[in-house]
Design goal:
Elements lengths: L8 E2 L30 E13 L4 E12 L3 E5 L2 E8 L2 E2 L6 E4 L8 E5 L9 E9 L8 E2 L4 E2 L4 E4 L2 E4 L15 E10 L3 E3 L3 E8 L2 E12 L4 E4 L1 E8 L2 E8 L9 E2 L2 E2 L2 H23 L6 E7 L4 E4 L2 E5 L12 H7 L8 E3 L6 H8 L1 H8 L1 H18 L17 H22 L1 H15 L3 E2 L1 H12 L4 H9 L6 E9 L2 E8 L8 E9 L4 E8 L3 E7 L3 E6 L18 H5 L5 E4 L1 H5 L1 H15 L6 E3 L13 E4 L14 E2 L3 E4 L2 E4 L4 E7 L7 E6 L6 H7 L8 E4 L5 E5 L9 E3 L4
Parallel strand pairs: 1-26, 2-14, 20-23, 23-25, 26-27, 34-35, 34-36, 36-41
Antiparallel strand pairs: 2-3, 3-9, 4-8, 5-6, 5-9, 7-8, 10-11, 12-13, 13-18, 14-17, 15-18, 16-17, 19-20, 21-22, 24-25, 28-29, 29-32, 30-31, 30-33, 33-44, 37-38, 38-39, 40-41, 40-42, 42-43
Helix pairs in contact: 1-2, 3-4, 3-6, 4-5, 5-6, 6-7, 7-8, 12-13
Bound molecules: zinc ion.
Zinc ion (ZN) binds next to helix 3.
């Protein structure tokens, strides 16, 4: 799922006044602050007026800040020119300011302005600025795997987006969260949305004027504007709305992943499901904290969650699964992240808890089997995307930027809450969530605050839990050895093989017996080796953690080959028949394919005829149109004929259907091949776009227009955490 959030993750407190070097004169009310001196400053309120002119790409702004204390500095987007500054009713000559250019962060680069003297403290500063802001929306990368070149500040005919990092709203530092008002002056057919409640909305001549107000502490602000068609409805006192771009009916319907999309139906589903989640979370956690929940289409690929609204790209917002997954996830972020903030320097807990309460919870509500599959998927991701070098502890996680950080900051983090629910009971954990929401709303909580609340509620000592799951990177790896049943006793050893200090674990053990008895044991493990000695009737099957209740490193043999395993390779080797590489048109299609699939400008291609199986010992490969399997792979049930293929009961004509298949290396179970069998090069662009979204599957089939028709998983071979006994 492509999603990423912008929320109030508070930066570490930094109050740098800088070294002031400008001379200040010796006027009575003007005293030079001493370098490093911390002058008291408290922001109270922002009132921002913004005028947007899309055709000229211009922004004009005026911000009135109310404050207590001494106003000494602010930051503003470097693309804007400061035109006026007034502090305490007095105009400050702009040449008196010390201007420090920020470090180059593209459109998010900020300029710092320092007031070289102390001014009277009447509590109001007015900052005016203007400038041209434009970025090409085509350059954005926002995918399941990578997030890059994000838009920061742009105004154009397609719409306007002003990200908080871009400091369009002057930033006075200190991570201040304050109430605000935003007054927008827009073309008549445009609308603007930001945090808060719409308090004024009228058209004057050829301009649309809107005012948004938030009386709760908030910010930094995200602002979006464009030619929107807006639908609103009230649900228990909360305004649910959808903001879709107005479209020319003559242009025909928007194309989704599987053909034309009926926008009426999409919006009706978004409204219905938003109402459903509002009720679910209100009943579960407490009252929804904002006055609105708006789903807003963006003109660039995105998946952001803001207080009371979410911004989704045109294609994403129309994907059929969004109302059943991401929509609820984003709505829940209004509790976790935007309701209770995150003290980021101690680790970002809010993604894991939000996954636990949305994506994972929806699976748990569906069935225990679906929840188990979801957990296993998380463990597969961790094993695929995180190898030692990419591992970080949950303390170090702040935001996802690739598959590894997603597997940790979302997946492992979700597991921490699942394991807490196992330890204390899910009702007790629910009570902790309600209590945290009630007592921490509007404040930044840390992992430690969460665990302290769990310790109190569950009467637990979580010191070791914290040390091994939050402070330590990695995961335990379990192995079952020498398991035997004699004289009515099951005996054997359970090993922790990850190396380093052993984990303290409560390991589920399932024993199914020939007489129909099913035993659910729990093994308390806190050292490298645990001797198992249990009385039981003759067993048929013994399995360690069969439902994946523990966060652990899966054994390679517990894992079937999956697409994500190969895509996790930073620089896979690409292979194609020599005839393809020698043909100019096909070669061009192949190069475009590798750069789209893996975002590699200089992918390495090799002719299949030159391939050596030993490569698969240390490197995964992506293969286009091999005649069958390649050397160096595990056995597979793939049947590849002249004109047909067949795997796991799915089949297709080679000339019509594309097959994508993951197969493990026979020499290294972390490496493998991703085999593409396509009718021709014209099938490749759609596959490069879509296949990364199907990382947890072993095989995929697509029709000639790139619509997915089948997906599935092959069975893993030889699970070492399971033992089947003979007998009858
Ligand atoms: Zn999230």
């Amino acid at each position: 799922m492509t999603h990423h959030t912008l929320r109030r993750v508070l930066p570490p407190l930094s109050l740098s006044l800088g070294l002031l070097t400008a001379s200040c004169g010796s006027r009575l009310l003007c005293r030079m602050p001493v370098a490093g001196e911390q002058l008291p400053f408290n922001l109270m309120h922002h009132a921002l007026s913004l005028r947007l002119d899309p055709s000229a790409h211009t922004v004009e702004l005026s911000d009135s800040l109310r404050f207590n204390g001494t106003f000494t500095r602010f930051e503003l987007n470097a693309g804007l020119e400061l035109t006026r500054l007034e502090v305490g009713g007095r105009q400050v000559p702009l040449k008196r300011l010390v201007v420090k250019p920020g470090e180059d962060r593209g459109p998010a680069t900020r300029t710092t302005y320092l007031l070289a003297c102390r001014l009277p403290q009447t509590g109001l500063a007015v900052i005016e600025a203007k400038g041209n802001l434009w970025q090409d929306p085509e350059q954005v990368r926002f995918g399941h795997e990578t997030v890059g070149n994000e838009l920061m500040a742009t105004v154009g005919a397609e719409g306007a987006w002003l990200a908080p990092e871009a400091a369009i709203l002057p930033d006075v530092g200190e991570g201040e969260l304050v109430p605000h008002r935003v007054h927008a002056d827009l073309p008549a057919d445009w609308s603007l949305i930001t945090d808060g409640r719409l308090v004024r909305d009228w058209v004057s001549g050829d301009r649309h004027l809107m005012s948004w107000e938030e009386s709760l502490p908030g910010g930094p602000l995200s602002i979006v504007a464009g030619p929107y068609d807006i639908r609103r409805e009230m649900v228990d006192g909360v305004e649910v709305s959808t903001w879709f771009f107005r479209r020319d009916p003559a242009a025909g319907p928007v194309m989704g992943i599987s053909g034309p999309v009926d926008d009426e139906e999409v919006r009706a589903t978004l409204h219905r499901m938003s109402a459903y989640y509002l009720k679910m979370y209100r009943d579960w956690l407490g009252p929804y904290p904002y006055s609105k929940f708006a789903v807003v289409e963006s003109f660039f690929p995105s998946g952001y969650g803001m207080p009371g609204w979410t911004l989704l790209g045109s294609q994403v917002v129309r994907m059929p699964y969004i109302p059943y997954t991401s929509l609820g996830h984003e709505l829940l972020h209004n509790y976790w992240g935007n309701g209770v903030y995150v003290q980021a320097e101690l680790g970002n807990w809010c993604e894991g808890l939000t996954v636990y309460g949305s994506d994972y919870r929806y699976k748990a509500l569906e069935s225990p089997a679906a929840a188990r599959e979801y957990r296993k998927g998380v463990l597969k991701d961790y094993r695929s995307y995180v190898d030692g070098s990419k591992d970080i502890s949950l303390r170090e996680f702040q935001n996802r930027h690739d598959g590894a950080t997603r597997a940790i900051g979302y997946g492992k983090s979700m597991y921490v809450f699942h394991m807490l629910a196992q330890l204390m009971g899910s009702e007790a954990l629910d009570a902790v969530q309600r209590e945290m929401y009630l007592s921490w709303s509007g404040r930044a909580a840390s992992w430690d605050d969460w665990l302290a609340a769990c310790e109190r509620k569950g009467q637990l000592d979580l010191a070791r839990f914290k040390a091994q799951w939050l402070d330590r990177e990695g995961a335990p790896a379990l192995r079952l050895e020498e398991l035997d049943w004699t004289n009515g006793r099951l005996q054997g050893r359970l090993l922790q093989s990850q190396g380093g200090a052993p984990y303290e674990l409560d390991v589920p053990l399932l024993i199914e017996c020939h007489d129909g008895t099913v035993m659910h044991e729990r093994l308390q493990v806190d050292r490298d080796t645990l001797f198992i000695d249990l009385p039981c009737p003759e067993p048929r099957r013994v399995a360690v953690d069969p439902d994946f209740d523990l966060f652990r490193l899966l054994d390679g043999r517990e894992m079937e080959p999956v697409v994500g395993m190969v895509l996790a390779e930073e620089r896979p080797l690409f292979l194609a028949p020599r005839a393809w590489l020698d043909d100019a048109t096909r070669r061009e299609a192949l190069l475009a394919f590798s750069s789209a699939l893996k975002d590699l400008k200089d992918a390495e291609w090799q002719a299949l005829e030159d391939f050596k199986a030993s490569t698969l010992k240390q490197r995964s490969v992506v293969v286009v149109n091999a005649p069958g399997l390649i050397d160096g792979l595990e056995a597979s049930d793939l049947r590849m004929g002249e004109d047909r293929w067949r795997i796991a009961g799915v089949e297709g004509q080679r000339a019509e259907r594309s097959l994508v298949l993951a197969v493990k290396s026979s020499t290294n179970d972390r490496k493998g091949a991703l085999l593409f069998y396509v009718p021709g090069p014209e099938a490749l662009p759609a596959l490069a776009r879509k296949v990364p979204h199907y990382g947890k599957y072993s095989y995929l089939a697509f029709d000639s227009s790139g619509v997915n028709q089948a997906k599935g998983n092959l069975s893993p071979r030889g699970n070492p955490l399971e033992r089947r006994f003979g007998g009858w």
